[in-house]
Known about the structure:
Layout: E1 6-13, H1 16-32, H2 38-58, E2 68-76, E3 79-87, H3 110-117, E4 120-126, E5 129-137
Antiparallel strand pairs: 1-2, 2-3, 3-5, 4-5
Amino acid sequence: xxxxxxxxxxxxxxxxxxxxxxxxxxxxxxxxxxxxxxxxxxxxxxxxxxxxxxxxxxxxxxxxxxxxxxxxxxxxxxxxxxxxxxxxxxxxxxxxxxxxxxxxxxxxxxxxxxxxxxxxxxxxxxxxxxxxxxxxxxxxxx
Length: 142
């Protein structure tokens, strides 16, 4: 596997402060990986923040412990990857599919948006943790 050039992360309670902290980590990441094209930065950042916001807005605790959000972001020469996890969380609803709702719906577009912004989206669940793995293929500007 190709070497990781830059890495950032965040772990904390699933709340609005977490979204701001993740934004800060992404800004620092792009300082470390300035070769990543602006369009890839923008689309990947949007996908990561949308994933984190979905956790903040929708994740329910599996027990008495609060839901925590854990984000691990890596940059390789031609691939961006984020593992966005909801720790201590119930399994998401089985009907949460990445499809666009009808025009009158006020929510439900997040997963579809994420899927449009990245190359792949995969989901894992293990020991009370839901993890979405987002990857975006990226080719540095010549």
